[in-house]
Amino acid sequence: MLLTQLEKPFNKVGYAGQFKYDGERVIAIKKSNEISLINRGNFIKNNQYPEIVEQLKIYKEDFVIDGEVHTNNTFNLLA
Prior knowledge:
There is one protein chain. By secondary structure, this protein is mainly beta. The protein has one helix and four strands. The chain has one helix at about 50-55; strands spanning about 25-30, 35-40, 65-70, 75-79. β1 and β2 form a beta hairpin.
């Protein structure tokens, strides 16, 4: 189905919808106490999301997390 812009929100009995928030897909990798946020273009994004890098430092074990970063004056890491 192709997208169509509406003048007011769609609301019809029998249908459900959800807001779509665009973000940036990243893979967070922690190996030997080094954390890297890598996007789909294989670019390091640590400088763009330093808050996320800092929060991921609390984990002791190495990991790989595939997620999407959504920002709007704050940040959330959705995995």
